[in-house]
Write a structure and sequence with these properties.
By secondary structure, the protein is mainly beta. It folds into four domains: 199 residues, Jelly Rolls (Sandwich), CATH 2.60.120; 96 residues, Immunoglobulin-like, CATH 2.60.40.10; 96 residues, Immunoglobulin-like (Sandwich), CATH 2.60.40; 113 residues, Sandwich (Immunoglobulin-like), CATH 2.60.40.10. Strands 1, 3, 6, 8, 9, 10, 11, 12, 13, 14, 15 and 16 form a twelve-stranded mixed beta sheet that branches. Strands 26, 28, 29, 31, 32 and 34 form a six-stranded antiparallel beta sheet that branches. A six-stranded mixed beta sheet has the order 33-30-35-36-27-40, with no helix packed on it. The chain is elongated and about 100 Å long. The two termini are 29 Å apart.
């Protein structure tokens, strides 16, 4: 196997001898193999061995044609041979090195070196750029980094990891760009991750629909248009810009403009309230910067007198919460102030905090705090709100969710990489019930183990364990929107690797990783 560092020293000491290495690569990666012949003193020379290089698919049989080959001494540096190869897909690579003349002597040593960039995190950056971490092998102190053809500021280098600050996007540049690691020009060595990061949405990112206004909707009633941005591997594309625009018809966006943008949260969600203002068909388009888009098509109709703005809440079975609900009163499509909305004093599973009716504000919204629970698993509890003592009523429903089937989603900062001087951000997660609704009052446990910092261990290497500095366990209860937040464990001024696991229900877990590197 290739040494984990990507660096080695070999010797072609016998006639016909050849050295062989294998290592795994990801698709769309360009890597460089370099050898430099040495004399008996260890200095580069062109009068000893003439190492030539061949590269094969490791699954090809012996005798197969090479993927690439380089003759001895084809480089600019003294004694150098170099070969650059691009992988088309995930694969296992075999490298062979032999003296071009077929010779072999004890004074035929050489230095070998593989420059390979494997992954880049994070996968998406704002237009202003930001910190990135490149993992791979064969990185050297003189290496430089380019993002989208622009130089990045390198902040630290080890054989397997480079941290850098990516520059702002060039004018007019959005989407996926290459990340390139270059060594000294004399060696021709480069490692490229094609489409390694993207400024905003990248190639393959797309939108999926959660909720949207459709068909006939009440005039004057805000309705959420919610989407999720996903990457090509169906992981959330958090942080991308999602643009809502009125394409045609009579409708308004909550921002008050014909078009406005929302930044997707860490779980890829973006939402904008859309309101029909007339009885014509309207189209609202939501899009990413890479062109992926969805449309909502609807027509405004006669609104009900009373509407529930927060009609549904999922609550962990056995728990009790305070749920602040809202009802909207319209008069001919215009919000009606000073209207009286009364909730039942008690209902199955509900208690109203205060018996007096609530009055609508200038926006036509009446607000009431309800005590909900405890509910049994699968129990539906409903309470009605009625307008001005009439039969114009709307229902508010709470669902007793089964906490053992809860599902965790990462919202923000579940994975972080920052310098030891930095302050880790709060870890925010969202708890969902088995139907995908945010679950309130669910329990989430976070187990954290803080280790002394060490460079990442290669997949096929043997690394000593890092020292465990501290550990802790914390439990949090989810809010009405299902979110919970935790503060990462840290030691001031100490470089650490934090490994954690958030858990809820019987099987749902989220891994936590916070690296504070020197």
């Amino acid at each position: 196997m290739m040494p984990p560092s990507g660096l080695w020293c070999g010797r072609l000491s016998q006639v016909g001898q050849s050295d062989w290495f294998t290592f795994p690569v990801r698709g769309n990666r360009t890597f460089t193999v370099v050898t430099q012949a040495l004399d008996e003193s260890g200095a580069p020379t062109e009068s000893k061995a003439m190492p030539s290089i061949g590269v094969w698919d490791a699954f090809d049989p012996v005798g197969a044609t090479t993927v690439g080959a380089a003759p001895g001494m084809n480089g600019l540096a003294i004694g150098e041979t170099w070969l650059q190869v691009t992988s088309l897909g995930d694969d296992l690579v075999r490298i062979g090195i032999a003296d071009q003349r077929g010779d072999g002597r004890p004074d035929y040593p050489y230095n070998g070196w593989l420059l390979y960039a494997d992954t880049v995190q994070p996968q998406r950056l704002p237009a202003s750029g930001g910190p990135i971490v490149i993992h791979g092998m064969g990185f050297r102190l003189a290496d430089t980094v380019q993002v989208g053809g622009q130089p990045a500021l390198v902040t630290s280098i080890s054989p397997n990891e480079i941290t850098a600050i990516a520059p702002p996007a060039a004018a007019g540049v959005t989407g996926s760009v290459n990340v390139e690691v270059d060594d000294l020009p004399a060696f021709y060595a480069a490692a490229i991750v094609s489409g390694g990061v993207s400024y905003d949405s990248g190639a393959g990112d797309a939108l999926t629909l959660l909720t949207a206004p459709m068909n006939t909707v009440p005039i004057g009633v805000p309705i959420p248009f919610t989407v999720t941005a996903l990457g090509p591997d169906l992981t959330p594309a958090g942080g991308v810009i999602v643009t809502y625009a009125l394409t045609s018809g009579a409708a308004t966006l909550a921002c008050g403009l014909p078009a406005c943008s929302v930044t997707a949260t860490g779980d890829g969600r973006a939402s904008m309230n859309v309101t029909a203002t007339g009885g014509t068909w309207s189209i609202v388009t939501v899009s990413l910067t890479n062109g992926s888009n969805l449309q909502a098509q609807f027509v405004g109709g006669t609104p009900p007198v009373l509407s529930a703005l927060t009609p549904l809440q999922s609550v962990a079975a056995g728990a009790t919460i305070t749920w602040t609900v809202q009802a909207l009163v319209l008069n001919n499509g215009v919000p009606a102030a000073a209207q009286s909305v009364a909730w039942q004093t008690t209902a199955n599973g509900f208690t109203v905090q205060g018996s007096a009716p609530a009055s609508t504000n200038s926006s036509g919204i009446a607000t009431q705090a309800l005590t909900v629970g405890p509910l049994a698993e699968g129990q539906l509890a409903t309470i009605d709100a009625c307008l001005n003592g009439t039969s114009q009523c709307v229902a508010f429903t709470a669902i007793g969710a089964r906490p053992e089937y809860a599902v965790l989603e990462a919202v923000s900062d579940a994975t972080q990489s920052l310098s030891v001087e930095g302050t880790p951000g709060q870890i925010t997660l969202r708890l969902l019930d088995m139907d995908g609704n945010p679950m309130a009052a669910g329990s989430v446990a976070l187990y954290q183990a803080l280790y002394a910092w060490a460079p990442p261990c290669a997949a096929h290497g043997v690394c000593p364990p890092s020292n465990l500095l501290a550990s802790q366990t914390a439990t949090a209860t989810s809010a009405l929107d299902g979110t919970v937040s935790f503060t990462p464990a840290t030691l001031s001024g100490v470089a650490t690797n934090l490994l954690g696991l958030a858990a809820s229900g019987n099987t749902s877990t989220i891994p936590i990783s916070v690296e504070q590197h020197p």
